[in-house]
Structures are given as C-alpha cells and as structure tokens.
Design a protein that fits this description.
2 domains, alpha/beta, 22% strand, Arc Repressor Mutant, subunit A, 4-stranded antiparallel beta sheet, Rossmann fold
C-alpha cells in the first residue's frame, strides 16, 4: 500500500480524494493542523499532498520545512491562482503544483509519475557493506537482510541517509516515530541491538560510532 501524507484544512475535500485513491491501494492520512502534519513522522510516508491556505502558517513555509528536512515527493494542491505561489513552491522544493479544482484522476496520475521517479532515484542507495532500499524498506548488511524492529529500522535509515555525517540524538528521535525522547536510554538500547545484529564492537566500533555528547554516525 502507498501511504500519503496530506496537509489540508478542508476535511470534506481530503475525504473525497482519499475515497477515490483508496481504489488504487493508496491510503491518505490528513492533518488539518499543519503543525501536527509537520510532527507526525513525515519520512514514514511515500508522498506529501500540501495545501497552501492553512491555519497558523502559510503552506509555502510548510513546504520549505519539509523539503529541507526530508526526501519526499511534494505535490502542492491549492486554489491559490497567483503564479508567484507556483514559482515559489517549485523553487523551494515542491515537485508538482496542481491547482484546484482538479479531477482526482489527474491527482492519481501525478502521484504515479512522482513515485516512479522516486523509485528510480532511491531504488538502491548503496553504502559499501550496507545496502539500503528505501522503497522496499530493506537494509542489507554484507548482502544479508537485516531483520530489524520498526525502531531499529528507523534509526538505521536515519543514519544511512546521513552516511559518514554525525547525526544528533535530536535528529534521530525527530525522524523516528518509535522514539519520543532524545534523552531517554531507549535510543542507546536500540543502537546496542543494532550493533549486536551487525557484529559491531561498542568499545571498538567499525561501523556504528558514538560521538560523545552529540549523537551517532555510520561509516563504511
């Protein structure tokens, strides 16, 4: 199933579109409150449909925040007809601008097109001994599939997407639906379990390194 995040303050419209797309095994999760949408775990979705006229914050600001922090196709769906909005939206990270009103068949076609493109781009991100297939939600270590819990997968995904870069505890927690507190020991426990599964020594790690006072990084 394709999971789509929608940030749209018109619940009737989101329900109408959701019922249509459900016929194609596409599930829409809509947030009328843009701040809830921003904090819902954006990276667990395959695509974002974003309205521009939202309460509390302009949709263009939401678009920029998400495009800056996540690798997710973004469709702006808006009744705002000013060409400046369209230009700005595309410049700050949107992949498509679909003005309202539109036929839901057109939205379905755009979704399919963007997901095909994303699949070609992200089909297999190789990190030498690690292979990360984002679309299939699989991580291989030394060509063997790692059997990970949801939390372990989310942490590994975050680290692999920032290979050789230091990722703060806060960044990891923000990107992981399964975690809620960067200061809790749960992240350390998950890191320990991952190290066990890849045979990494915590005292002399080869792959998964702890950066004291900051966070973690993955190498190789």
């Amino acid at each position: 199933m394709i999971n789509i995040l929608m940030i749209e303050d018109d619940p009737e419209f989101s329900q109408f579109l959701g019922e249509y797309l459900a016929k194609y095994n596409i599930k829409i999760t809509n947030y009328e409150d843009p701040y809830l949408g921003l904090s819902c775990g954006v990276d667990k979705y395959d695509l974002l449909i974003l309205d521009l006229t939202l309460p509390s914050i302009d949709g263009l600001d939401v678009c920029q925040k998400i495009a800056t922090n996540y690798e997710i196709p973004i469709i702006i769906s808006s009744a705002r007809s000013d060409v400046t909005d369209k230009i700005m939206g595309l410049q700050i990270g949107a992949d498509y601008y679909l003005p309202k009103p539109y036929d839901p068949k057109e939205m379905y076609a755009v979704i399919q097109s963007l997901l095909r493109r994303a699949n070609k781009t992200n089909k297999n991100i190789e990190t030498s001994i690690f292979k990360y297939n984002k679309m299939r939600m699989e991580i291989l270590f030394d060509n063997n599939l790692l059997h990970l819990t949801n939390a372990e997968y989310e942490v590994m995904s975050c680290l692999l997407e920032n290979k050789n870069g230091i990722v703060s505890r806060e960044q990891i927690v923000e990107s992981c639906v399964s975690l809620s507190d960067s200061y809790s020991k749960s992240l350390d426990v998950i890191i320990g379990r991952i190290r066990t599964k890849i045979g990494d020594d915590s005292k002399n790690p080869k792959y998964l390194h702890s950066i004291r006072g900051v966070g973690y990084k993955i190498s190789q």
